[in-house]
Design a protein that fits this description.
Oligomer: heterodimer
Helix content of chain A: 55-70%
CATH topology of the largest domain in chain A: Arc Repressor Mutant, subunit A
CATH superfamily of the largest domain in chain B: Hypothetical protein af1432
CATH architecture of the largest domain in chain B: Orthogonal Bundle
CATH class of the largest domain in chain B: Mainly Alpha
CATH architecture of the largest domain in chain A: Orthogonal Bundle
Number of strands of chain B: 7
Mean pLDDT of chain B: 91
Mean pLDDT of chain A: 93
Number of domains of chain B: 2
Largest interface: A-B, 46 and 44 residues
Number of strands of chain A: 4
Helix content of chain B: 40-55%
Chain lengths: 181, 401
């Protein structure tokens, strides 16, 4: 069953926290890609509509929700020293929300943790390659060979090299096997 | 409904569309000027170096800008969500119009012809055209029109609305801003020295005008667009339209859409206000006689630490107390936060805007919530809320039950 708005906010709060705990820079792009893996690979029913956009799969719904979470004081944007972009950080209010959604987080916590461990150490370029590789794998289906999917990835993201494209597809294949297992 | 609060705000969407077209052409010229494009960007966006392509895309950008609001309903956003059949939006109507046979003839007759699909794609942008993939080039061109940070749609409406409403805080130096716009790699995050995919940003010299734009946006939202009296008139209009429109919904049929403008609706409001036995009389009369509901509650940030939906809770409780007909609720939360964009510094490093601007770091995210009551119960409602406010907010229902 699809998560309701407050359950979804609790899941995204936990994801933001877990990514940071696992070494992520924790900017909006990192949360976007984490949420994409959470929904599309781990089947957590957040219900975001992802399209292929800048840095790979992107959800305008999630962008709006992150902005509203800031308006509600659940997360805050923490500016970084020159020249870096900001990080997202959970507030005490955001932590309190998590406490109220213990059941939801107990159910989806392992998936969130798995995504955070897998993606936490990746920078934006790596996240772009991996999330686009997952996107093309879902688009072309399991019949498409790694080479075909890598070619499609290159079509969509011409700045990614052939070797990196193929490598990203193979990493995603391994992750899909692990998840299925 | 803005003229009911700001009497000079009678400007039309057509003037705005012309303004957006003009500004889109100016931005296009600046960001594609070879002197303003780095080799890095030229490598990433091949189309930017093809002179023939540029001439085509400049015309597409201007036409897309001209048509970006073509599917708007009467009174624009005032009553859109609830009054279109489920699953429809004004963007669907815009798309249908741009791709219509009548307009295809216009696109084909231009020297040289424009592909209607290109016009629709750039006019609506990736958020609305989810099924279509956007190349980096197309994404940038669409960003020129409907982008969050520097989209000319927003630049024009802020300046135009501020001018017509007679409020100074919506103004900023858009000439300077446009001169400093550039296509830049996105701001670096973490240990990445190189930036990411290209997007619109500014030269370092434009950072203060960019700050002024974003401050103008914040002030216009808080002072004009979400003025509580202006907003309640939108609600009264919506109440009227639900009763007046056949089936309580706008038609998505193109001919019917084109035949219904603000003028037809205003005429109906005036007629119905004089017809005491009409079903929609009470709503029309409120608008014409300026007998609007009064504000009972505005969102208070301290209430949000108690519950995420303070206005909704007070609305539900007030409905129980005073009856559904006497209470209205309205809310809006800012959809995106455009304060993060790349800035090219004097030494050509790309920096995040928030890393160099304390003003942008402190700019709040706007969110509004209002509960209104009929003037007849206003005093009673205020006394009731004063007594019960804390208990209503602290109801323990915001969990998994």
């Amino acid at each position: 069953m699809m998560l309701n708005r407050l359950q979804r906010l609790a899941v995204i709060s936990r994801l933001t926290d877990s990514l940071r705990e696992n070494g992520s820079w924790g900017g909006e792009t990192h949360v976007q890609k984490g949420a994409y893996f959470l929904q599309e690979m781990m089947d957590v029913p957040t219900g975001y509509d992802f399209i292929l956009y800048k840095h790979g799969p992107f959800s305008f719904d999630l962008r709006d929700e992150l902005t509203e979470m800031r308006a509600d004081g659940l997360i805050e944007l923490v500016p970084q020293q020159y020249p870096y972009g900001p990080k997202l950080s959970l507030t005490d209010h955001g932590k309190n929300l998590q406490n109220k959604f213990d059941k939801t987080l107990k159910k989806h916590g392992p998936a969130i943790e798995s995504v955070a461990v897998t993606l936490g150490g990746k920078d934006v370029s790596e996240l772009e390659r991996l999330s686009t590789a997952l996107f093309v794998s879902k688009e072309l289906g399991s019949d498409a060979s790694p080479e075909e999917r890598a070619e499609r990835l290159r079509e969509l993201k011409p700045h990614v090299s052939d070797a990196m494209s193929l490598s990203a597809v193979k990493v995603v294949d391994e992750l899909l096997v692990e998840t299925a297992g | 409904m803005s003229p009911l609060v700001y009497s000079e705000a009678t400007h039309k969407r057509f003037e705005h569309s012309l303004g957006v077209m003009e500004l889109a052409g100016r931005v296009f010229d600046v960001v594609t000027n070879p002197a303003n494009v780095t080799d890095e960007i030229r490598d990433l966006i091949k189309d930017i170096s093809h002179t023939g392509n540029l001439s085509y895309w400049r015309r597409v950008v201007r036409m897309a800008a001209l048509c970006h609001d073509i599917g708007h309903l009467p009174f624009s956003h005032a009553a859109e969500k609830e009054l279109l059949p489920a699953g429809n939006s004004h963007e669907d109507i815009s798309r249908a119009l741009i791709l219509s046979d009548e307009m295809k003839d216009i696109w084909n007759s231009m020297t040289g012809p424009l592909r209607p699909e290109d016009v629709a794609k750039l006019a609506l942008g990736p958020k609305e055209e989810k099924e279509l993939g956007f190349s980096t080039w197309e994404a940038i061109l669409s960003e020129i029109i409907v982008g969050d940070a520097f989209g000319v749609d927003r630049i024009d409406y802020l300046l135009r609305d501020a001018h017509h409403c007679g409020v100074p805080y919506g103004k900023f130096d858009h000439y300077r801003l446009i001169d400093t716009l550039r296509i830049l790699p996105a701001s670096p995050a973490g240990d990445e020295i190189e930036g990411g995919e290209p997007t619109l940003g500014v030269e370092h010299g434009g950072i203060h005008t960019a700050e002024a734009l974003l401050l103008a946006r914040y002030f216009m939202y808080s002072q004009v667009y979400f003025h509580p009296v202006r907003r309640i008139y939108d609600t009264h209009l919506k109440d009227f339209l639900v009763e007046w429109l056949p089936g309580g919904r706008f038609s998505t049929d193109i001919e019917k859409h084109l035949s219904l403008t603000d003028n037809e609706v205003w005429s109906a409001i005036l007629n119905v206000a004089r017809t005491a036995d009409a079903v929609e009389h009470v709503h029309a009369k409120r608008i014409v006689e300026r007998d609007h509901f009064k504000r009972l509650y505005s969102r208070d940030p301290s209430d949000v630490s108690v519950t995420l939906n303070p206005g909704q809770r007070i609305f539900e409780a007030a409905k129980q107390e005073f009856g559904e007909e006497s209470v209205r609720y309205d809310s809006y939360s800012q959809k995106s936060d455009p304060k993060e964009f790349p800035v090219r510094m004097g030494d050509w490093r790309i920096a995040s805007s928030t890393s160099i601007s304390e003003t942008l770091q402190r700019l709040p995210v706007a969110k509004f919530e209002y509960v209104y009551v009929d003037a007849k119960v206003e005093n009673r409602a205020k006394t009731w809320l004063k007594k019960n406010r804390q208990a209503i907010l602290e109801q323990d229902s915001e969990d998994e039950g």
